[in-house]
Amino acid sequence: MSYLNKLAYQLFGKNIKKHENRYYSVQEHLRQSRMPMQYDIYVARARLISVCVGICGALLGSVLASILISINAVPAGIFTYVPGIWYETIFSHKNSVFFLVLTVLSGCLFSLSSYKLILYYPHYLATLRKTKIDLMLPHIVTLMYALSKSGMNLIQIFDKVSKLTDVYSEAAEEVMLIVKYMDNTGSDIMTSMSIVGQRTPSHNFRDFIENLLAIADAGGDLSDYLASKSSQFQKEATQQQRIYLETLGIIAESYITIFVAGPLFLIIIIVVMGLMSGAYMSILQLLIYVFLPLGSVGFIVLLSVIAVKFEDMDVKTIVKTLSEYDDVHLQEPSKYDNFFIKWLNMSKKERMVMEYIRNPLKTYNETPGQVLKITIPLAVVFVLFFFNTNYPFEGFDAAVRIMDDYLVFGMLIAVVPFSLFYEHKMRRYNEIDDKIPEFLSGLASINKTGLTLTQAIEIITESNLGVLTSEVKKMWRDIKWGADINEAFIHFQQRVKTGAIVRMVTLITNASQSSGNVQDVLFIASKDANVSKSLKQERKFNMLIYLMIIYVAFFVFLFIVYTFTVSFFPVIATNIGTNGELNPMQTSGFMQAFDVEKYTMLFFHAAIIQGVVSGLVSGEMCEGNMLSGLKHVIIMVSISYVIFTVLI
């Protein structure tokens, strides 16, 4: 136990133990989230942390109160008396009351908020685990069905699945808990399944385990049950996908209303009111530079939290070290050996250089992030060069106007190459995923005729599977060079690390190792891949509509901003002097000094910021990945820049 936990338990532990019933939900969520901590220690630590946070909040409140008092921002009529007693009898001045109240309120607010958030954290983790379990449950049940068809019993199936946590994440971890409970306590499989089923955060997994217990207890057919549950979960996944798409539709409409139409409406009002008072300029700046970016970032975080998606998973490699000969002292290499080692290293470097010269884009196509090591320094050098060229600037506004162009070009220099390579990679992966069901169906059909899986792969190499054809030929080349069929599939998985490929290879290799008859396994894998493909296509089609809506809303935003800048501002400038001085013909006191260039610059920044955040939101909403929105950012920012530099 850490010192913090010991101190917290000494201060609050006894009181928490007396009211154990109040924290039943915390106990349950701690178990479901698999956090290795007792509830009383966790709650005691939450109380101690909340007290510390409350003290910090009180200090911040006192600093804020001091600042407000120093600038005379306390309203004259506030805290003039305590009900029934004039304030002078307690405090010497109303500022003392204001200082004390703000300090106490700030401390209480910070303390209570932190306490509630810490207690909510296990519930959040449990909900996150529930989502991951439900997402992978159809696939893991399909794998169990394939393993049962190969002749495995339930204990063997659980043991096999428990070793696949890198592929099936939290769902496989729940199965692993069943296996661990049997190994550590010596309990039978029925008892272990019952205990884990009661503690899992997923209702679907609990129902699956309870029904599996009933089937095992009654001696029913395991394969038939797993087949029916696999079909059931796949249907439920389709229904959940539709519900999620409807939710995304509501969120998309909310985004357009709050962060596109709303700011546009406020901008119009603020500009009109700004004609009467220059004080509204600061409100407009706050809206453009603070509300738009921060609100959109919060919106992207919300989308990423509620997003139902399968993320691409990298294959985890376990490195084993040979330790049997650690005590053996190697002989010092001779001069010839040193020369030979240097020659090998030089040859390796030369081969890497020649491969890079022959195909310089291969590295960036496989790992697009590598290109940022080049483009980001180039963008920084580009911006700094033109900054030094134009320095010194004639005032802050002039510096901003000059640097706007270079900052936009610098951003494009950094982002455009990465976006091109990233989209090329994702398009290739998507094309491979789309052809996987056809590939598996072809293998199953050929295998059904009596040919082996190896012969089926040789025949499939002559088929037209698009991008997947080259990968199948590589598999066949591995087999010809001596690799067995499972090794060829694993090498294919390591080259294309998408979720669909990883699950397909895992299903085929594990089921085929237990049985020579892979025909049923291939048909099962094909069905699973078809379900994933249909869900993916349905989401893509539905989200395309909202992508178009976001683009239309953005263009409406640009049109109104363009109209203001080209048509409205010149009229205002006609009635007000070119230097911001009132026209003698203008009614005195109504229109204030109006800086057309400053408002134009603000609108330009608003269009650029709106293009960036709308593009990122589009990527997160339509493809479940913010990086996929970079292409939309490039398009929207480029259009905004052209409109404000060419047309205005």
Structure explained in plain terms:
Among the domains are: 127 residues, no CATH class; 102 residues; 214 residues, no CATH class. The radius of gyration is 33 Å and the shape is globular. About 7% of the residues have low confidence. The protein is 77% helix and 1% strand. The chain has a two-stranded antiparallel ribbon. It is mostly helical and 648 residues long. The chain contains 21 helices and 2 strands.
SSE diagram, text form:
Elements: H1 3-18, H2 24-33, H3 39-70, E1 81-82, E2 85-86, H4 94-149, H5 154-161, H6 165-185, H7 189-199, H8 203-218, H9 222-274, H10 280-306, H11 335-358, H12 362-366, H13 372-390, H14 396-448, H15 453-460, H16 468-480, H17 485-495, H18 499-514, H19 519-575, H20 596-623, H21 630-647
Antiparallel strand pairs: 1-2
Helix pairs in contact: 1-3, 2-4, 3-4, 4-5, 4-6, 4-9, 4-18, 4-19, 5-6, 6-7, 7-8, 9-10, 9-19, 10-20, 13-14, 14-15, 14-19, 14-21, 15-16, 16-17, 17-18, 18-19, 19-20, 19-21, 20-21
